[in-house]
Design a protein that fits this description.
Layout: H1 28-38, H2 46-50, H3 59-70, H4 77-83, H5 95-104, H6 112-116, H7 128-141, E1 149-151, H8 158-165, E2 170-173, H9 177-192, H10 197-215, E3 227-238, E4 245-247, E5 253-257, E6 260-269, E7 272-280, E8 294-295, E9 298-300, E10 307-308, H11 310-318, E11 323-332, E12 338-342, H12 345-360, H13 379-383, H14 395-418, H15 421-440, E13 448-449, E14 454-455, E15 469-473, H16 482-499, E16 507-509, E17 525-530, H17 540-555, H18 588-613, E18 614-624, H19 629-641, E19 644-653, E20 670-678, E21 688-689, H20 690-711, H21 717-735, E22 738-739, H22 748-767, H23 778-790, E23 794-796, H24 797-807, H25 811-818, E24 821-824, E25 827-830, H26 840-844, H27 851-855, H28 868-882, H29 884-893, H30 900-912, H31 918-926, H32 929-935
Parallel strand pairs: 1-2, 1-17, 2-16, 17-18, 21-22
Antiparallel strand pairs: 3-4, 3-11, 3-15, 5-6, 6-7, 8-9, 9-10, 11-12, 13-14, 18-20, 19-20, 23-25, 24-25
The chain binds S-adenosylmethionine.
S-adenosylmethionine binds near residues 174 and 574.
Length: about 950
């Protein structure tokens, strides 16, 4: 389904292939399957285990972006997949088919590698023979020399890492210091310094021993054979009514197992609480740990029953009116078993001791004392009274992190003295990364993970959510502490070393990508691969401050270039962040508009810089994921404005999803790869009239949707429109600049909107057997199409809005009068009859108050309805509220038998509503029995298998 376009090459003095592999049709399904395997736990790239970074592309996508952009198009799929290490080594041909076959076969009890018959490609590097062959082939295609690959927004560096792993020269740049450190370790130290196994292990022991001695006193224990690993901690606030202690716990689980697990039973006495450990064999008896005092933020006093509402709970924490309380402990006994016990006074003594230390020790006063700046992400932690980064820790957590830093500082001069400059920096960097990883599991933001009885990391989602039950990780414990974090860092580093034994380091920079021409010369790059920030999805700099402040304490003097600023650089970051414009405008809409413009300008500058570095016939590959059209609109405008044209596009699955082979859910998990070449000078000076290409655009998008469906390529209906954006944008870029009749520039958004409409039509044509949907009123059509495409009542606002355009309705205008949808966390939520139709029983009784008539817009006693969906919702309501007989009367009174729109809507809804949906169940009843006989709706074209249709009215009496 990918498009094939030939690039008319100019004679630039440097040879390059007319067409590269990624500009031709690709074995997408096989690559998608491999990407899905890659994203499963413990299978992904070793670079990801080095340290947290916020965006991760699967290795197959990164490899494809590099290899596909340098290999000449003549290289066939088998050769490409073999180089990507996909498929068994010995297989000579049919690799893509092999992978697809394996995917559809049922898997046995062994692991994925056993099933597929070849090892995880992440662990596989090309053999020397493969490398020689690759280099020969590539060099020949690129005028005798290997091309240089540039990634200007490289994050942790997965793309350039894969380039150097294949012996391809790479340049990598990243703005953010936290990502830059990871990148430096992977792209410079791994290939240049090599193994550091014994060195890091030696220093680890010394640092650990030193820190442990100074930490022990904060982890007192009644049983010295029980080494504390982790503690579950909560806040104790005082009830304003009775003065009793309220622990802010939602559920008392410490560790869940299939047969029950470990939990805490609180004992409330004389206004106080103490804890008892229980082994739960059956959750409902004798005690249900699900039942803590806190529900949806409100805390019910276990002593007097008075509720402290969530705002007051938060105020108490903000104003420091709380105590920390250890309610559960995970420990290791002398035989190495992991057990749980209740928190007790002895644990709280350890916490108090740390508090006294923090209050009295001047040494610790400056540790992590940088103020938290107000950003779009800081709101929640600031509202909890956290002003400085140290406030994300309890005093004990702070002391523990401080003691590890002290131990590191003690040995730093020895390390620097003993090894050469680069090697000592590499060792210190790995040690610091381990401490930074450890921070993640030991803060007030680190959730107690009751599924497995240990701490979770700060960023389970990409935001700072405050946890009322959090984990205290004893870093000095023999396992699950510093040692474990360091071993993970070292193991992943050693993997990277083994993958780059024969490689040269990448040429790396840490700067704003909009200025990289200050670092690298024009024409010094042949291929640019970009995985740019995803518009507004992740606020990298704001989030990474939490690691930055700690890493700067460790490495400020070692990497003074990386850690020169107070906090991470947010001003130059290319993200669409409306909160950055708070001071310029109080209006949310204009903030969003300014943010969009800012992102577009920054991305344009980045693309322009890439353009100037790229050789005349070079290739640029951009991967991008987003559901909002605004994101695509700005990114592609930036791309085209910077002087590129689109030579090919592909949809590729790059986001975590369990549903290869499944349609469903409203989430986008596909990216588009946009492949571009430099625009030929002078070619695009003539404008194209939008009216002249509008139809072609719709045709291209519709055709892409049809191609996808015909090819059997597995992609959700939601993602199909995104997949069609590729060819749409290609066409648009070809015709650029596009103007309307008044000469005003048309933005890509218009073309994408056109594409979405065309794809919706194709989806409706293909997946909806009911005919006549086009004759329905626009609101009803939108409602049916939304269920068809999203298979869910909730979906992103932007998409629903676009679908409204396709269906011919302004969904914002109809929201209030029809209440057909509501907003739920920024998403659209479709409403059913329960939230739209007034209560018919109460309406008929003048003597009672009927609140539903004030709340809901649809009056079921009406005889005519503006929208057919109102009639259908009323019919469902009457059936459910008054039974089948009343429904029969209601239908006949309105002569709905001969109402074609009513029949079309009922059958279409029967088709699109999920099987378990309540509306659908009642509709099935409505078309059955005597109401069914009356309506006489033909449902032969719909799959009603498994549906139990009622046959007579008596089945439905109330
Ligand atoms: C999608 S991520 C890249 C992830 C990367 N492919 C990886 O494997 O880690 C985008 C990156 O762009 C970086 N970035 C944002 N603005 C930048 C700028 N102006 N210059 C350079 N890098 C920037 C972000 O810090 C982020 O790491």
């Amino acid at each position: 389904m990918s498009e094939k376009f030939t690039n008319e090459e100019e004679d630039s003095g440097r040879d390059s292939p007319d067409k590269v592999v990624i500009e031709r049709k690709l074995p997408l399904t096989a690559i998608d399957i491999e990407s899905q395997k890659d994203m499963k736990a413990r299978r992904y790239h070793s670079l990801r285990s080095l340290h947290k970074w916020f965006a991760a592309r699967p290795t197959p996508a990164s490899r494809l972006s590099v290899l596909g952009s340098i290999l000449p198009a003549e290289v066939d799929d088998d050769e490409l997949l073999k180089l990507m290490q996909i498929g068994p080594k010995q297989l000579r041909s049919g690799r893509a088919e092999y992978v697809e076959r394996k995917f559809s076969e049922s898997k046995g009890s062994g692991g994925l590698d056993d099933h597929y018959g070849y090892p995880n490609p992440n662990t596989q590097s090309p053999t020397t023979a493969e490398l020689e062959q690759l280099h020969e082939l590539v060099a020949e295609a690129w005028g005798g020399e290997l091309p240089t690959v540039l990634d200007p927004t490289a994050g942790r560096g997965t793309i350039p890492f894969e380039a150097i792993r294949y012996g391809i020269p790479a340049k990598a740049n990243e703005l953010n210091p936290v990502a830059s450190l990871i990148m430096k370790v992977a792209l410079e130290y791994a290939p240049e310094v090599g193994s550091l196994n014994s060195e890091v292990n030696d220093w680890k022991e010394k640092i650990h021993k030193e820190a442990k001695e100074n930490i022990e006193e904060y982890y007192p224990t009644e049983n010295p054979d029980h080494e504390i690993l982790n503690s579950a901690v909560t806040y104790l606030i005082e009830c304003d009514s009775c003065g009793g202690d309220i622990p802010l716990v939602m559920k008392w689980w410490l560790n869940k197992t299939t047969s029950g697990g470990d939990a805490i039973r609180p004992i409330y006495e004389s206004g106080e609480v103490r804890y008892e450990h229980v082994k739960v064999q059956n959750v409902s008896e004798p005690y249900d740990p699900q039942d803590g005092p806190v529900t949806r933020g409100d805390a019910e006093c276990p002593h007097c029953g008075v509720v402290t509402v969530s705002d007051d709970v938060r105020d108490k924490i903000t104003n420091n009116e709380f105590q920390y309380s250890v309610y559960g402990v995970n420990y290791e006994d002398s035989s190495g078993n992991w057990e749980f016990r209740a928190g007790s006074d002895v644990d709280n003594r350890g916490m108090s001791k740390a508090r006294d230390r923090v209050e009295s020790d001047f040494g610790i006063i400056d540790f992590l004392s940088t103020p938290i700046t107000t950003t779009s992400q800081s709101g929640e932690i600031q509202r909890m009274g956290m002003e400085y980064w140290r406030d994300i820790c309890t005093p004990r957590q702070l002391v523990v992190h401080y003691e590890y830093l002290q131990a590191f500082e003690k040995y730093k001069p020895e390390i620097q003295e003993q090894y050469g400059c680069k090697k000592s920096k590499a060792i210190l960097s790995l040690l610091a990364l381990a401490s930074s990883r450890a921070l993640s599991f030991n803060t007030r933001l680190s959730q107690w993970y009751d599924e497995i009885g240990c701490p979770d990391k700060i960023f389970t989602n990409n935001n700072f959510a405050v946890k009322k039950m959090f984990a205290d990780n004893n870093l000095s414990a023999p396992r699950r502490g510093y040692i474990q974090r360091l071993e993970q860092v070292l193991e992943s580093y050693q993997d990277l070393v083994s993958y780059t034994e024969e490689s040269n380091a990448a040429d790396i920079a840490q700067m704003d990508a909009a200025q990289i021409s200050e670092k690298w010369e024009n024409d010094s790059v042949d291929v640019a691969v970009l995985d740019p920030p995803y518009y507004s999805s992740i606020m990298y700099a704001e989030l990474s401050d939490v690691f930055y402040v700690l890493q700067k304490e460790y490495l400020g003097d070692v990497h003074s270039d990386i850690f020169s600023s107070k906090l991470t650089n947010k001003d130059d970051e290319a993200v669409a962040n409306p909160s950055r414009f708070n001071e310029i405008s109080g209006d949310k809409k204009s903030q969003a508009e300014l943010a969009k413009r800012d992102y577009e300008e920054k991305m344009t500058s980045i693309f322009e810089e890439v353009n100037s570095l790229l050789s005349e016939t070079g290739v640029i590959t951009v991967m991008f994921t987003h559901r909002d059209m605004d994101a695509w609109d700005t990114l592609t405008t930036a791309f085209i404005e910077a002087g590129f044209t689109i030579s090919a596009t592909h949809p590729i699955k790059t986001e975590q999803s369990d549903r290869v082979g499944m349609q469903g859910k409203a989430s986008a998990d596909s990216s588009i790869f946009l492949i571009g070449r430099k625009q030929e000078t002078g070619k695009n000076s003539k404008s194209t009239l939008w009216e002249d290409i509008k139809r072609d655009i719709a045709e291209v998008a519709g055709q892409e949707a049809r191609n996808i469906i015909e090819s059997g390529y597995s992609i959700s209906k939601t993602d199909m429109a995104i997949a069609a954006y590729g060819p749409t944008l290609h066409k648009f870029a070809q015709e650029y600049p596009v103007v309307d009749k008044k000469g005003e520039k048309i933005r890509p958004r218009e073309a994408l909107s056109e594409a979405r409409e065309a794809v919706t039509e194709v989806i409706a044509e293909t997946f909806l057997n009911t005919e006549g949907i086009d004759s329905l009123d626009t609101l009803t059509r939108w409602y049916v199409l939304a269920w068809l495409i999203y298979e869910n009542d909730t979906f992103p606002y932007d998409e629903g809005n676009q679908l409204g355009v396709a269906a011919g309705v302004d969904i914002n205008e109809i929201k209030r009068p029809t209440k057909i949808w509501g907003k739920s966390r920024g998403d659209i939520q479709l409403k059913n009859q329960d939230e739209r139709v007034q209560d018919i029983v109460l309406l008929k009784d003048d003597s009672v108050d009927n609140p539903s008539s004030r709340k809901y817009p649809v009056d079921p006693t009406d005889t005519r309805f503006t929208y057919t969906i109102d009639a259908v919702h009323s019919a469902i309501h009457v059936y459910e509220r008054e039974g089948a007989r009343a429904a029969w009367d209601w239908l006949t009174e309105r002569n709905l038998k001969s109402n074609q729109a009513f029949a079309v809507t009922v059958t279409a809804l029967l088709e699109v509503l999920p099987k378990e949906n309540g509306m659908r169940e009642t509709l099935v009843n409505l078309i059955s029995g005597e109401t069914g006989e009356y309506l006489d709706i033909n449902v032969d074209h719909i799959d009603m298998s498994g549906v139990d249709r009622q046959t007579s009215l008596k089945d439905h009496t109330e």
